[in-house]
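On clarity, I found the account of how folds are encoded harder to follow than it need be. Since the whole study asks how a given chain folds, the encoding of that fold should be made plain. For the editor and my fellow referees, an illustration may be useful. An entry of this sort, consisting of the sequence and the corresponding backbone structure tokens, reads as follows:

:::
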Amino acid sequence: MGGVFSSSSQSNTARSTGKGKGELADQYGVVDFVDIVVPTNEQGNGEHIVQKQEKQLKETQNQKGPAKRKYDDDPVREEGTHDNKMGKKNKQEKLIREHLEGVDGEGEPVNVDDMDDMEVEGDGEPKQQKQQPLHGHGGAGPSSSENKPKASDLIKYVEKINENMIKIHKGLVPNMRTDGYCFVNQPLYDTLIEELIESTEHGSGGMLPSLKQVANVASLPGVVGSVAMPDIHCGYGFAIGNVAAVDMDEPGAVVSPGGVGFDINCGVRLIRTNLTYDDLMKGKGKKQVQLADTLYNEVPVGVGSASGFKCTKEKMDEILLTGMNALQGTQFVWDEDIAHVEETGCIQGADPNCVSDRAKKRGVSQVGTLGSGNHYAEVQVVEEIFNAEAASAMGITQVGQLCVMIHSGSRGLGHQVCTDYLKMMDEDMGKNKIKLNDRQLACVPIESDTGRKYLAGMAAAANFAFCNRSMMTHQVRRAFEKVFGATARELDMHVVYDVCHNIAKIEEHTLADGKTIRALVHRKGATRAFAPHHPSLPEAYKEIGQPVIVGGSMGTYSYVLTGTQKAMECTFGSTCHGAGRQLSRVQALRNLKENDVFNYMKEKGIELRIRNKKLVAEEASEAYKNISDVVDVCQDAGISLKCVKLRPVVVIKG
């Protein structure tokens, strides 16, 4: 990560529409720290001395505070068994349930055992609970009113370096080993500051503000970098959009499941075609309607959905061990697909023996299923091409060309793997005496028995997810064949690329001091964005950099970006993954009416097929940040470059 986070780097003016700097500063006494040097004090304890007089924080005790924001690591209930009783569960499982259990919008408990893809399929709010250190081993527990920090004290640690980056100095939370960073535009900066102020003055409502989560990650043993993308929002332990690199050769360096998430290898795949929008709209749009109906029938959707694929125990173990290689020679994978998938569709080091029987049982019927929440299959039309050379290398050659995007992950199997290892790590935390600021950052040394097993189980779940998207690719190809009367090969339905955005991987990176390390890079709600000529890239993309598939929210644009050298230097080769939520699911249900969303989609010429009508409001575009703003921040910061813009015309959801 040479030259990391240089404060001299410049960017274009952020594209934004929100509160201006002055308005926020007047309200909260916030100042921009551009051009201000903020040294540590002589004691070196991480507290920072601001060299300009900060405006006084306005009196708010007698004013009604802003409405509390809720967040979206939402638990989800699967169809079937909803037994919420603890029974004879041991003490460790009880504690982990305290971390995970939530209540839905109606106040009904959500059973961890029956949750599927937690962060993307949630139908409820996180349980309101206090943040405290796991097992009381250090960190910052709940503060008394006497020593509770003021908002004005905390914002001193947040420095706005330029229009697209803020620095979180050591001292915002205890035990930070390195500074944190976040890519922003002005509205997002304002939102993050307001979130920090609100949580300090009025309480966090059970979840920490995103900036504190990024800072807490920077306190983990072995961490050499904690950086957040512009689609950041609060998550379980790690913020969604948080990237963290751990020096694997540092004694005691840890792995944390919170840095991967419950839906291991949730990711996105893009498939091109040689069809155009005109082909789709023939017969006054009848083809569009027919394609929407056929895709909905071919691709199993929704919570608890099952595929028709008969998966034996032996085949499941092969999938977990070898990923897409297990499907080679079958109708489900073309030989050339594998080259255009991150890690060629197989994360090395996987071990099926590190996946519990329960996880395998949950996964057997779910290979080739979409799931629910923000998972989708979309037919999209190329709206704009920013880089014709790069787009051509991907087989995207004209505006109006049809593509298909699939967004899904490891379903119940991945969720169970994460849950199983959180329980194990909870047992190990007391032995290892690791100091944590947040109990949700449960972790163990990478080289410990539990650490090695988690990485092997996580890799196996990631391999399952690659196969899941491959099976759905087959279903999508079959649907197109039925509607357009030609084979998938005749329709040129090749995989453009498939990327993970919930994963931890061993990679080689160079730090600002020139030292090259073997890093365990946690990407939670972030996408790998390797530069041109990186050895991990397929031959077709060596010259252009890694394709980055960035999915939009329901009814909005999606993008294809390309990776850059700046990303290698500043973000451990990472960029954004999507729009990022700005309304919780419950807030969306309260604020939005499903009929209005249906009508909006129809007016935009989008055929929507959805199994759970409640998701129409939960997944409406208003519940998410503007994806174009998110992508513009990444472009302006240089961590990825725009290549193609896509507009949805058919949306399939659970």
The first strand starts at residue 102 and ends at 104. The two ends are 40 Å apart (CA to CA). Residues 82 and 155 are 43 Å apart (CA to CA).
